[in-house]
């Protein structure tokens, strides 16, 4: 599986383009805000001759969804997220104004089907499994590719840290339950691709991340 990382917007969010030898692709958390970021992601998809099958969101906070309109306008693919984050998604302009103090009037694209816990997304010769991991937001999910032992964790899990839970809809209790589920369900050699910052492994996090203690 090929994983291309693009660091996006003023919060340095990680957007991932995932593909394999079949040239089917998924874009996870397209937070592309600046024109150069948007062009880089679109150009990569086109130059690699990838067929964009899914636009996936680990959650609907603004820094992870800035670029969804570009993907929809360019490739005609609607984004997918968990239904519990739908209200956050549709409040995009209020999010940006409240958190960043700046206006945002770009219309958001229509949503595709909602993701649910246990949902499976075939992608080429691979399969992406959806796990509902509330805590950072009520509809936070992570995406697990079992045969590649990789996890796209959004803002649920970071290297030596976890996502904040003090935003609207966040829950520390839910976050702890979600982390426990990840710790007890996934292979310890899983590579974790985080929503911000460097990647890590589940083994390292279980050993050194204080939130797993």
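-> sequence recovered:
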């Amino acid at each position: 599986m090929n994983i291309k990382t693009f660091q996006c917007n003023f919060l340095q969010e990680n957007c991932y383009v995932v593909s394999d030898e079949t040239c089917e692709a998924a874009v996870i958390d397209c937070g592309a805000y600046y024109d150069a970021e948007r062009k880089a992601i679109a150009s990569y998809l086109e130059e690699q001759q990838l067929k964009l099958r899914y636009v996936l969101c680990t959650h609907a906070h603004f820094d992870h969804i800035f670029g969804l309109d570009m993907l929809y306008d360019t490739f005609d693919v609607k984004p997918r997220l968990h239904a519990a984050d739908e209200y956050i998604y549709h409040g995009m302009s209020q999010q940006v104004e409240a958190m960043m103090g700046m206006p945002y009037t770009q219309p958001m694209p229509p949503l595709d089907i909602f993701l649910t816990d246990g949902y499976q997304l075939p992608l080429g010769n691979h399969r992406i499994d959806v796990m509902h991991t509330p805590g950072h937001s009520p509809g936070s999910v992570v995406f697990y590719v079992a045969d590649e032992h990789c996890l796209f964790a959004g803002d649920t899990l970071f290297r030596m840290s976890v996502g904040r839970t003090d935003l609207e809809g966040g829950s520390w209790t839910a976050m702890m339950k979600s982390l426990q589920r990840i710790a007890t369900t996934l292979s310890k050699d899983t590579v974790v691709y985080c929503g911000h910052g460097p990647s890590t492994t589940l083994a390292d996090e279980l050993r050194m991340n204080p939130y797993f203690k």
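The chain has one domain: 2-212.
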